[in-house]
């Protein structure tokens, strides 16, 4: 009888231990602190909040995404380095900055690389793009969650009309500090000047730069129309944004959490991209109302031809042609 009691007691203890272990596992939660440079009124911020809400709901609170706007966690380049070290931080970035680690992927940020939202979404199926993403993850610690976030066409915003590359001659145009961005602006005729997004307004006031190349909603959100008078529709870059996290952190997540993070990123990204298309139209109309002159009669053929020099300067002609053939055939 005593032996039976001991067996039952041991069985109960084992069951209690297993239950406690199971409960501890069930209670294990993960947090991603996600940083972006845009303001709280930008469509992307609302899209990131929607992504966060869906991930939390789908994982029953097991994975929480905390969204920080206006670079509250720090400068983009610094954040990316923290991500590489395994921090539970995410960053909205672009292929220009990722090209600092895997040079080929920078082509996505080159002049006239993709010229429609449809082409941008097809990039996810490109074998070459998939290979570059794997290299980023395996060799540099950067996991691309998705890149279905298309921010819109970038144009030159200055205090004079721009119709040809020659009109940009001598103008210092603000760019992010990445080689493909610098070379793109240089190829199109201007003098690239590296500057953080938050410094553009005072930089224009202090005449450190003569203009910037941005999307329409950036101008309205940051009130840059107060220091810039003309928007010239060069459409030189259709900006595709990448959401990156630490490979180490991502691999530590349960598989179902990884799936939720990726799938909800893609869904929210494509929804937000559609919102951005409408936001472009609305922001353009708002800028006209505020007194900005919009230059539409731009020689796009001349700009396309000039833009090729950026790929040549960085040795990316072959990479550009390869990816374009994959998404256009």
TrEMBL record:
Superkingdom assignment: Bacteria
Gene Ontology annotations of biological process type: transmembrane transport
Keyword Signal listed: yes
Coiled coil: none
Keyword Glycoprotein among record annotations: no
InterPro entries: DctP_fam, TRAP_DctP, TRAP_DctP_sf
Keywords, in A-Z order: Signal
One GO cellular component term noted in the UniProt record for this chain: outer membrane-bounded periplasmic space
Signal peptide feature range: 1-26
Protein name (database record): C4-dicarboxylate TRAP transporter substrate-binding protein
